[in-house]
Known about the structure:
54% of the residues lie in helices and 12% in strands. The protein is built from 7 helices and 5 strands. 27% of the residues are buried. The model has no long low-confidence stretch (mean pLDDT 94).
Amino acid sequence: MTFILIDTCVVTDLADKQSLWFEWSAATLERLDQQHTFVINPIIYTECSVGFETIEEVEALFKHLGFAIKPIPKEALFLAGKVFLQYKRRKGTKGSVLPDFFIGAHAAVSGYPLMTRDKGRFSSYFPHLDLIMPEP
């Protein structure tokens, strides 16, 4: 079995059946389920927790989804810092990009495909990353 890292946006889609992207996210996971193990990391867990009142609710969501939490390797932490530095040198102005760099670096270093709807920074800063995304 190979791992697929599931981005925060996909988890939030799955947590809300009214989401515009719920159907795509659910159908894509179902299609990939037999050959893959779905994982998140502590950054994704943290970002998802914002939408819940208690840790028990967050834990119940991930238990229901069957997603395991994988630690971020040190090599990915280092790469995230270097990519963030590139972003700043290119005069990037958004202040909340570092979590995306942790997520992208984790997928890149671990060789995991990343299921996301956010092509921008991932394709720009991790051009060799295998992205699972909706068709345009």
